[in-house]
Write a structure and sequence with these properties.
Helix content is 28%, strand content 25%. It has a 9-stranded mixed beta sheet, with helices on both faces. The relative contact order is 0.11. Its EC number is 6.2.1.30.
Length: 407
């Protein structure tokens, strides 16, 4: 596979950035017609937000906040300027969080992810994501149909009925979790059913470890991964290069220090923050709570957009110490108060019957005086006492972990 979905995927990154940020001011103005964005972005000159540096100055909206915000101002927390009836479908996800589907073609922007995985017009796709109340099934259904595929809306479960459909329609493609794909293949093998028509897959929604990747490949299926959410649709996807995931077009992705909105250094692990440019349903700096890191350079497949390593864990590392919550943003605050510090990691352990905190801090200028100053800041910020261990720059792993609960 060497073709690309369209010319947008291979344009120079500088051209892409210029185009995205030329559109952003109008999207911001439209977003501020919604009361919640109007309050959050009060005093912001939307016309001046034309660069990543300017965007980084806007507040982040944490996905973890959405359930409470949606409950307080149903259904969308005041973040959607349009009326609910202006959308095509209305969903809910655990939380609950309420999500609308737009009426435009490919509302979840997944057609190019399917294309990168080898799907082509007139392919038949078995879609096993759930269609019940949540948007998962519709995300992949709409994306496949936008590409020109025919979709079997199978949903998960009912393997016997699925075998009947597979043997009748002979789908070449599968979309669903990798776990359910293995269940189908195992059940088919044990019952003598023919699912050999399935040659490619786009999987998401669950871990796809190398061992399972190898097993699926050994069964004759070329499977690719995609990263998405019920809020944004398909965010990034694997390509034939098999080097991380390429960020989708029409999205601005940032990687920030967990608990903050501050961009990390290039290559560092941090929290994924996404801004979408859909004027009907904009997301401005939505912090997903997922960790990843940017890869340098364009993909060998020819796509030039930003690449990420893929899903690398959760950014919300809040833990309770001696009955009090300690949060990543508190650790970030300690770092802001001491310019000489690099990466920080708060390690929580047990000694005897007591919780113990140890703040490990990278610095090139270790001293007893600095250690005492940081210990004072640790107590002031967290309202808890703890130890401070100063380590050399680069000693802490680049994994995005700010709080390590080792109890």
């Amino acid at each position: 596979m060497t073709a690309h979905y369209d010319a947008l995927e291979t344009r120079e990154q500088a051209v892409r950035e210029a185009e995205l940020f030329s559109r952003l001011p109008d999207v911001l103005r439209g977003a501020m017609a919604a009361p919640a964005y109007a309050e959050r972005l009060k005093g912001i000159d939307s016309a001046a937000v034309t660069s990543r540096a300017a965007l980084a100055g806007l507040p982040v909206l944490r996905k973890s906040e959405l359930p409470a915000l949606h409950k307080a101002s149903a259904p969308f927390g005041g973040f959607v300027p349009a009326a609910p009836g202006s959308f095509a479908r209305l969903f809910t996800s655990p939380g609950p969080i309420f999500e609308p589907e737009g009426r435009q073609a490919d509302p979840w922007h997944g057609a190019r992810a399917l294309f990168a995985a080898g799907f082509r017009p007139d392919d038949i796709v078995l879609n096993t994501f759930s269609y019940h109340l949540t948007p998962g099934g519709f995300i992949f259904d709409a994306s496949a149909r936008a590409l020109g595929c025919a979709v079997i809306p199978a949903g998960p479960g009912n393997t016997e009925q699925q075998f009947e459909l597979i043997e009748a329609y002979r789908p070449v493609g599968y979309s669903g979790t990798p776990d359910f794909l293995k269940i189908l293949l195992d059940a088919a093998a044990s019952s003598g059913r023919d699912v050999s028509s399935i040659k490619r897959a786009l999987v998401s929604g669950a871990a796809f470890p190398p061992s399972l990747q190898a097993e699926i490949k050994a069964r004759g299926i070329d499977a690719y991964q995609a990263f998405g959410t019920a809020d944004l649709g398909l965010i990034a996807f694997e390509t034939e290069a098999r080097e991380g995931m390429v960020v989708n077009e029409d999205l601005i992705m940032e990687i920030v220090k967990p608990g903050t909105g501050d961009p990390v250094a290039p290559g560092d692990v941090g929290e994924i923050v996404v801004t979408s440019l859909d004027p009907h349903h904009p997301w401005i700096r939505l912090a997903l709570g997922d960790l990843s890191a940017a890869l340098s350079g364009p993909s060998k497949c020819g796509r030039t957009n930003m690449r990420i390593k893929g899903w690398m864990g959760r950014a919300d590392q809040t833990t309770k110490v001696k009955g009090m919550f300690v949060r990543p943003e508190q650790v970030a605050e300690i770092g802001k108060r001491h310019a000489a510090l690099g990466r920080l990691r708060l390690v929580v352990t047990r000694q005897g019957e007591s919780d113990v905190m140890t703040l490990k801090a990278e610095t090139a200028g270790a001293s007893d005086a600095l250690r005492e100053e940081i210990a004072g800041t640790l107590r002031a910020v967290t309202k808890l006492g703890g130890n401070v261990e100063l380590v050399s720059p680069g000693a802490l792993p680049n994994d995005g972990k700010v709080i390590a609960d080792e109890r």
